[in-house]
């Protein structure tokens, strides 16, 4: 920032200026009395330099008297700000693929440096580079994997709000592949944009995988969709083969014929998730003769296949329509295998199931004699649905997290009321408000007690009054999780959902969230390493680790080492940094590929290890479209009042800027008033006068 400050200082006095004469006369009178009317020690030896000493005393006394008039110093500060010229240079990889890339690396950079030097004579030049983000540093040329022009324009507009920006010089090929259209951000700019057109506008023969849309996660044994967009230019009448491979196995193949010179077609396919783990799905279109580039003929799509299959048993005391409603809701998730039992017929091992849904169990019904306590000892989590047949005394004896004490065998009709402070999982508020309109459930009457770890998702509303009692609640007890629905009649909720919305989505989603939370197994391992499964090439790879002692309290005293290996490469070793109660490690960005890691530490004589895999994906967005969009650059310039010039015409810019009448130096004026009593130099001057006088008098024996 180049600011030039100019100062103008004046004196302000609230009294008439002839009061200065009174101050001077007071100083003279004091000096005459001191040096001329008093008798000296020896009249024969008059004080040497008496007139100089009288003058010093006159000035010091006059200055002190002047300060009693409370004079003010008026200080006018004029700050001149030179016009700012912002230079934003495209640093995206698409320019590296241009036929003129050699010129952009060498000659163009020299010309830009010369332009900056020329403009700096008259302007304050601020230079940036942009790609995925804006930077004032100058990293490796044309290394950014994405281009977000809209974000760059928006950030610069905010940075220079109310600043004297004369113009922006924007270099680039006009191609953006991230964020919104930059044309949407032009209204916020208060300065002209001069664009420098780079890149190649020639449309070449080219086939490409323009886009691949797919979920990042698939479940083992399930099918998942993948939409593949294939683009082609100047390939009318030609054909190519689209293939999808995973782990060397061809999963899909189809011949595609391009019927127009410029075509974009989307193939919607369904693949099977056959093996758990992280997998790179390779989507490619076979290269054709004389293609301009084959960089964009291939896309690698990382997908994590999760073995999420779980077995769920719904056990009821007696036949009940709630069981069918619960089963339909749970089975909507293809990863759940659901079995239903009457309590008297259940003879399976509870450990074989990932979740038990216990409808009105423990039960008052004599022939529903099932040992619920023994089921819970297996460690299998459970969802309790309470009703008229629930034996509350036996439920309380389980100490599962909810206890109900009642002296009257009665049920209340209660409606759900959503609890906004619930934190175990996220509940859509619109869906919760619709659930609040569901018909009442029949809930056991009594005094409800939840343990300290429990949270209420829906409380029970009696009429229009919120009782605060739990209707739907969950708890976490160390490695055990339990959920409670304190009412029967869930089948009415499912019917009401369909009647109001023509779907069962709200009810099914609610049950699914309860099941997912409750069925989640707690990992009791003492050593954990957490890392994302998929990173991009531009994203830093960050690990977190936790180590627990015998009481499952976090510790971070021992060192934690980790070995990271890319497939086919040599492993690299790192040591974690200690954080507040754990460990962290940031190893920066990595090249695209599949990686495995093994972390280890030693604590109390034992060795703990954790291993896993992750993928760094190659975005390749900059290679998908290599046709420069100079029309966008021309629109940006014309809309903001600037001009577009060719990359070889940088020397035109200083002349174009000098022609503008609106690029001027701005002067900011500020007036300050300072009391002279607060000026240190006034105090120093008075002390200096008195000190010199005292030294001379001391030297002459007058003191």
Write the layout of secondary structure elements.
Elements: E1 3-12, H1 19-37, H2 50-67, E2 72-81, E3 84-90, H3 101-105, H4 107-119, E4 124-130, E5 134-135, H5 149-159, E6 165-172, E7 193-197, E8 206-214, E9 217-219, E10 223-233, E11 239-246, E12 249-257, E13 262-272, E14 277-285, E15 298-306, E16 310-316, H6 321-331, E17 336-342, E18 355-359, H7 372-377, E19 382-385, H8 392-398, E20 402-405, E21 411-418, H9 429-435, E22 441-444, E23 447-450, E24 455-462, E25 465-477, E26 480-485, H10 490-501, H11 505-519, E27 527-530, E28 534-536, E29 542-548, E30 554-555, E31 560-566, E32 572-575, E33 577-578, E34 583-586, E35 593-603, E36 606-617, H12 621-624, H13 630-640, E37 644-646, H14 653-658, E38 666-675, H15 680-699
Parallel strand pairs: 3-4, 3-6, 6-7, 7-37, 9-15, 16-17, 16-18, 18-19, 19-26, 28-36
Antiparallel strand pairs: 1-2, 2-38, 4-5, 8-10, 10-13, 11-12, 11-14, 14-15, 20-23, 21-22, 21-24, 24-25, 25-26, 27-29, 29-30, 29-34, 31-32, 31-35, 33-34, 35-36
Helix pairs in contact: 1-2, 2-15, 6-10, 6-11, 10-11
